[in-house]
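Data availability (excerpt). All sequences and predicted C-alpha cell strings are deposited with the supplementary files. A representative entry, 2'-5' RNA ligase family protein, is shown inline so that the format can be inspected without opening the archive.
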Amino acid sequence: MSIPVPEPFGRRLCEARLSLGDPLAASIPAHITLAPPTVVPCAELPGVVDHLLRVATAERRFWIRLRGTGTFRPVSPVVFVALAEGIEGCERVQANVMTGPLQGDPTFPYHPHVTIAHHLPDEVMDRAFKELSGFRADFEAWGFALYKLGRDGIWRRDRDFTFGTGHD
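C-alpha cell line:
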C-alpha cells in the first residue's frame, strides 16, 4: 500500500532512477510507502481490502510537498526525495493501515519518503543525492493504492482507496 506520486512528478522520478542504473526503477512506480511488501494469502485478501476501505473512509486529503533529498545510509543503502510537508498525514494513515490484518513488527521506524536509489554503489548514491537535491513537487494525497507484484517482477496498481469515500 502506498501513496502514488502523480504525473508528471512520478515519471520524472522514475526517469531519474533509471538514469542512475537502478534495476528496480522499471518495476516500481514512484510512491510513498504506507506498508512494506506483504504476502497476503488469497483467502485473506477480502479482509485486507475491507480493512483498507475502512481506513480510507475515515481519512481526509492532505498536501504533500517533496523537497530535496535525504538518505538512510549507513543504516540502509537508500537515497530518497524528502517530504517537507505531509509527514504527519502519511504517519497517521500508515499507523491506521498497519493495524488489524496488517499488524506486524516493522524492520525500521516509519519515515515517509520517495526512494530514488537503492542498493547501488556509493558513488551512484552520492550522485542521486546531489542531482535530485533541487527536486520539488506539490500534490494532494487523495488516497492510497494497493499494488500487486506480477510474475514478471513489476508492481502494478490493483485498486485505489480514496480518502473520505472508500475505494474506487
